[in-house]
Amino acid sequence: xxxxxxxxxxxxxxxxxxxxxxxxxxxxxxxxxxxxxxxxxxxxxxxxxxxxxxxxxxxxxxxxxxxxxxxxxxxxxxxxxxxxxxxxxxxxxxxxxxxxxxxxxxxxxxxxxxxxxxxxxxxxxxxxxxxxxxxxxxxxxxxxxxxxxxxxxxxxxxxxxxxxxxxxxxxxxxxxxxxxxxxxxxxxxxxxxxxxxxxxxxxxxxxxxxxxxxxxxxx
Length: 219
Known about the structure:
219 residues; 7-stranded mixed sheet; 37% helix; globular
């Protein structure tokens, strides 16, 4: 069931997000630290899609801590928003629910509105956490949004987060080496002009997968 989305709330910078970013940056050094590369690849303003690999529930925390822009929104699986307290926190953070494995048109319209407002949107293109740590088949949502809106995609590699919070665990642990986040070069939808919609989507998804493999070493 689709959840009602407050678009006006999503298009405002969240104080909860800002505070959470500071808290996570303070806490991550106790679990091994956070190193970030490729900040210059993220536009200082304007619409952009941040598309990381996904191997642990810690990944959204890591991306929030690694980015600087206040205008960050995210799409997350709708089940999380149904959990008391946690769901309210995600709403306050500026996140929006999406129903996985279905054509969630409401979530698509919300994502288009976020990008149309010149904001930064976090989407995990695999659609779910990888249980075995390998890169999964990419879902078409992020690429479709890029081609429809003109928003560039920033392929983003996360290494080490799974060592702090393994898949299925709930308590983080110290991990030597910490976490490394690398923001890759933008994939520009304008580079796929002249192709049919199907060809452009397929080509951009291949390029995104290749970039994620290069940034993470996943297969």
